[in-house]
Amino acid sequence: MKLSLPLAMLLALSLAPAARAADEADYKAAYAAAEAASKEAAGMRNQWTVTVSALAAAKKAADGGDFDRAVAASKEAEALAKASIFQATSEKEAWKAMEIR
Fold first, then answer.
1. Which of 1, 9, 87, 98 has the greatest number of beta carbons closer than 10 A?
2. Three-class SS of residue 79?
3. Quick one: pLDDT at residue 18?
4. For 9-62, what is each residue's pLDDT tens digit?
5. Where is the signal peptide (predicted)?
């Protein structure tokens, strides 16, 4: 029984998918998605400054060769851009409910 537990753990770890490091292609795909969402938010005149900062951080990390950090910052920027788009669309009509009649 004592021998089978470590063997089972070793087997489970060997079958687990290995985490792979992000590469330049991963960064470019993530950055393109974030940039597209950011441009959509800017077109709605609701681009958040933190989105621009996250995009800049992604570019800086990629320029330094740290693609893991660049992908993470790009995904954060995309999430922020999508949140600003959601805010713009939800508040487009919501202000009417707060209007004094």
1. 87
2. helix
3. 47
4. 544 555 444 467 888 999 999 999 999 999 999 999 999 999 999 999 999 999
5. 1-21
Closest CA to 46 of 57, 54, 55, 37: 37
SS3 38: helix
Nearest-angstrom CA–CA distance, 67 and 51: 18
pLDDT band at 4; cut points 50, 70, 90: low
Global pTM reads 0.75
Cα 25 → chain centroid: 15
Alpha carbon of residue 101 to chain centroid: 41
Q: Note every long-range contact of 76-79, with CB atoms under 8 Å and residues 24 or more positions apart, other chains counting.
A: 77/34, 77/37, 77/38, 77/51, 78/30, 78/33, 78/34, 78/37, 78/38
